[in-house]
Every structure is written in C-alpha cells, then in structure tokens.
Design brief:
Blueprint (H helix, E strand, L loop, with lengths): L5 H11 L8 E2 L7 E2 L1 H12 L6 E3 L6 H19 L7 H21 L4 H4 L10 H10 L3 H12 L18 H17 L33 E3 L9 H13 L1 H5 L4 E8 L1 H7 L9 H5 L2 H11 L15 H8 L1 E5 L10 E7 L4 E6 L11 H12 L5 H12 L8 H7 L10
Parallel strand pairs: 5-6
Antiparallel strand pairs: 1-2, 3-4, 5-7, 7-8
Length: about 425
C-alpha cells in the first residue's frame, strides 16, 4: 500500500538506480520491475513497515512480517527462477514463516523485551527472524543455521533516534530482512558466522531463547495493528475512543478542553511520551502519544489520511498537542499497554479512562477484522480482482502447490493511498 506514496517513489528510485540489470525478485506494487533478491527484501520490508499499519509483538517488540515476508518472498522467487527443480509450496512457505515468528520474539525476550527500546535500539531490527525463516526455507542443517544467525547478528542495526523525523525508521526492518537473507545465503555457501552469538556476554535472559519451546507459541503473541501509529500509542487512542463513545457530545466540543494528561509505562514513555513540536514529519507524528491522541480527538480516527502534509499542520490538533502532558507512571509489571488518559475541560469536568492493554492485543483483532482491514486498505489502490485473488491464495496457503501465482499478483501496480 505504501510503495506508491510520493516520497517512497523518489526514495525507491534512488535505490533502483543502483541496480545494473533486472533481477529475479518482485517489487511489491511495481509491475514489470524485477530486482535482485537483496534489493527486493530491503524495499519490500520498507514498504510493509512504511506506514505503521503492520503487526507487532507486545512482549518483544518487533514487526515480524516486515522482516520475514520480504526475505522469504525474495528467497523463494529467486530460487524458483534459478533452479528448475526448486518450487516453494504454501506449506513450505508457511512453515518457514512460523520459524521466524517463533525466533524473533524469543530473541527479543532474551534481550530484555520492551526495554531494548528504552536503551536506544529499534528492537525488531536486531532479533534475527529473517535468517531463521530463510534458513528453514532452504532446508539448512543446524550447524549452517547457527552460522546464518552468527552472520545476521553481527549486522544488527537500528537506532531509536530514527523515530523523530527521519525516513530511515521505515527502512530498519527492511535492512534486517535484507541482512537476514544475505546471512542465510552466505551460510549456505559455507561462510562461517559467530558461534553461539546469543550465548556470549553481554546477555540478559538467554534461557528465554528456548523457554517452553513447543509449549508456548510466540506466534500467538503477534498481533495486527488497528491504527496507523506506533503500537505504544494505541492504548491512549483506545482510551480516547472509549471516552468518545461514552460522551459523544462532550468530546465533539474539543475547543473546551483545558488539559490532557496521558499516563504511560516506562517503555511507552521513552518511546512515545516525548513532547511533539512543529514541524513534525509523518514518522514523528506516528511515534507521538500526544499527536496521535489529539488526532483521535479531532478526526475520530488514526489512519493513513491523518498523516498527509495538510493534516500534519491541523491547528485544532496542534492546540490539543500543546495542552497535552505525557507522564511516567510505573505500574506492577510495567506493561507497555497499561495507560490512562485524563481530559479536563474549561468548566471543570474531568473525563478519564484507563486500559490494561491495547485493542489488538486484548482483545485481538478477529480473523474477520483482519480481512476487513485488508479490504479497506486496498480499496481503490489495487484492482478488486487482484485483491480477491491474493486473499484467496493467502487464506488457502497450505493448499498451494507453488506460489508462482502469488508472485505475479504482488507485482501488480498499486496507487498512492494518500491521494485516492
């Protein structure tokens, strides 16, 4: 959906200019353009993470699909093109995906979970799920997979300072997808990586790598976002939605608001509790609890249309941002999802609501919710027939003998979602 936004078009072309020839891997939404597998993994990962609409894991924060799927799609497509005997079935692809889904959160938990964010790392880009998934798809043995992890972990990157105004925040998971794919390819070719990289000092909770393996499935902890914003902003958005539903007339008169307090856990506070100031980029706005809260109050939703150049300078929203104070509020367990919003009006009325976790985590989006989100996001961007065919393949992935049809479908040109 984001591969055709105006800024992404320019940035993508800058990378494509480095491509000497056509490759074997598809670039999502760029019909007729094939690139090398590494470039496809980088750009498709950037597209998927490009507007904060993907997935996340609440205990070991990462956006699994923007790392795993681009690496797997590129690896499978290149292997299919270069080896006539190699085909990727839906079952093989799904199994490799789950290998990544299980690996990423386990590494994240072993590295202190959400507190990785507070220490300055953009966590998802350092957890290694792409290397796990591609290694599984290639059928590598245990020693070679360890080499792949050792090659991937030394490429770990992603600073949280990217969240304030840069475009490179969108690319962190794309870098990880590319680096994980490269790691698996190098290991397959005999390149030796760091041995037991996660077992060496410094370390935090190495036992989390294998704790309850096969009993507690980390895949079940991967949740889909309902809002186009950083996951730590979702609970405060939920609080405001609740207040709007319970007090519709009062909340529509937002010009009477005197003060807004947002109480955040330590991880959420350090990630999104900073004071927003103009000028603010779309990236910064989506990372800000104060801006997303103001956006929900003024516009009634926090989706892609709320982050256009015009809405980013909306005076009503900025008045509320200036009235908002994010406060550190540590609770038992210090869950990133435990948040409270208090709104004081000029007449002395105070409305408040708290949640223990975000919608999407508890309760999670249902299968019907996820399909509805897919259809809503692709409406008027991708041809209806293409949307339907992709949906049909993905929902019957285990029954697919190969993924050639899917590769062809994701190549179809998409439109700019911000101008539809």
């Amino acid at each position: 959906m984001t591969s055709r936004t105006e800024c992404v078009l320019e940035q993508t072309q800058a990378i494509l200019n480095l491509e000497p020839t056509q490759g074997d891997a598809s670039l999502i939404g760029w019909e007729g353009r094939k690139v090398t597998a590494l470039t496809a993994a980088l750009l498709n990962g950037t597209f998927i993470q490009g507007f904060e609409l993907d997935d996340w894991h609440s205990e070991a924060p990462l956006h699994s699909n923007s790392i795993i799927l681009p690496a797997l799609l590129a690896a499978a497509e290149q292997a299919n093109a270069q080896a006539s005997h190699f085909t990727t079935s839906g079952k093989d692809f799904l199994l490799a995906t789950i290998a990544g889904y299980e690996t990423g959160p386990r590494v994240g938990r072993s590295l202190w979970g959400t507190h990785v964010l507070s220490s300055g790392w953009h966590s998802g880009a350092v957890f290694g799920p792409a290397a796990a998934s591609v290694s599984k798809l290639y059928g590598l043995d245990a020693d070679t997979i360890e080499d792949a992890f050792g090659i991937a972990c030394t490429q770990s990157c992603g600073l949280m300072s990217a969240q304030f105004e840069s475009d490179v925040k969108r690319m962190h998971h794309g870098f990880a997808a590319r680096n994980g794919l490269l790691a698996a390819v190098l290991a397959q070719g005999g390149y030796v990586g760091i041995n037991s990289g996660n077992g060496k000092q410094p370390q935090y909770l190495p036992q989390e790598l294998t704790s309850e393996l096969g009993i507690r499935w980390q895949t079940n902890g991967i949740v889909i976002k309902p809002y186009a914003a950083m996951a730590g902003t979702h609970p405060s958005i939920d609080c405001i939605r609740h207040l709007q539903e319970q007090n519709p007339d009062r909340m529509k008169r937002f010009d009477g608001i005197k003060k807004i307090d947002i109480l955040l856990s330590e991880a959420a506070f350090h990630h999104g509790g900073w004071r927003a100031a103009r000028p603010l980029t779309a990236t910064g706005a989506q990372m800000s609890n104060s801006f997303t809260a103001a956006t929900q109050i003024v516009h009634g939703q926090v989706l892609m249309p709320q982050f256009t150049p015009d809405t980013l300078v909306d005076e009503d929203a900025w008045r509320l941002v200036d009235l908002t104070e994010c406060k550190l509020h540590i609770t038992d367990g210090d869950s990133i999802g435990c948040q409270e919003v208090r709104i004081r009006f000029e007449d002395g009325t105070v409305l408040h609501h708290s949640v223990p976790s975000a919608f999407g985590v508890e309760p999670p989006l249902s299968n019907d919710d996820i399909v509805a989100k897919w259809r809503q996001l692709t409406r008027d961007i991708v041809e209806n027939e293409v949307v339907g065919k992709i949906e049909e393949i993905v929902l019957s992935l285990e029954e697919q003998d190969d993924l050639v049809a899917l590769f062809e479908l994701i190549l179809q040109t998409s439109k700019n979602p911000l101008t539809r």
